[in-house]
Amino acid sequence: xxxxxxxxxxxxxxxxxxxxxxxxxxxxxxxxxxxxxxxxxxxxxxxxxxxxxxxxxxxxxxxxxxxxxxxxxxxxxxxxxxxxxxxxxxxxxxxxxxxxxxxxxxxxxxxxxxxxxxxxxxxxxxxxxxxxxxxxxxxxxxxxxxxxxxxxxxxxxxxxxxxxxxxxxxxxxxxxxxxxxxxxxxxxxxxxxxxxxxxxxxxxxxxxxxxxxxxxxxxxxxxxxxxxxxxxxxxxxxxxxxxxxxxxxxxxxxxxxxxxxxxxxxxxxxxxxxxxxxxxxxxxxxxxxxxxxxxxxxxxxxx
Length: 303
What we know:
Blueprint: E1 7-13, E2 16-23, E3 39-40, E4 46-47, E5 50-53, H1 64-72, E6 77-80, H2 98-112, E7 117-121, H3 123-134, E8 141-145, H4 153-164, H5 173-183, E9 200-202, E10 208-210, H6 214-218, H7 230-237, E11 244-249, H8 257-266, E12 271-275, H9 282-285, H10 287-300
Helix pairs in contact: 2-3, 3-7
């Protein structure tokens, strides 16, 4: 099996530097980071690049296992830190609205140079759906990971509460692990805490903080900002012609049967894959089943 070689790349958007990793089945050249002519599999068939967008409050590292698997299978996969997250720049003006994220995505698509298969979790999926519908032809295929046009407010509120309750940071990585376990009790608490270091940063005060800008969540208000826009998403969904897959966590409180039905009504060609053991963090909860759903979708659509 080919060993993937992740390499950093960056894209400028509205004065902010967005950073990510390019996972490739070969050692990438500078040209690889400027355009995506597509890689070729063992049979010589050209394959489209894949762009993975994480959810709010996460970083590109939530996709590491998925991207490594895609690269090992001959794919070129881009993982990106959204503005205000991970190693990407923070907005000096607290600009973290949907228009800002879609603008960033358009800048990344221009840099890639070819319509990619976009896999987006939560906020990443909302961003991808918006651009896929508003800019037809810009995205070759769309995979929405535990997000639909009409999400469940209670599930979204639980995410916001989790994020808000830890703005002040943590005394230790153990506290971080405890907080994640409390939010997602179905996931086994990791025996090693090293993986958490990619999602938090240690500051001069000796405390650990999430790897995202607090202004992303609250802006100028005490109330958490809303990035869901059902009206805009519905309008975009009606214009989506690209192959579309929704991967739903069976234990998720964000996506319901009602939400699935509504998305199928708006995008009739949508297919749905259920990961029964997963919650909202589908790839992290059961990456093997998640990856299998992706591969099936790509194969069925000759992507």
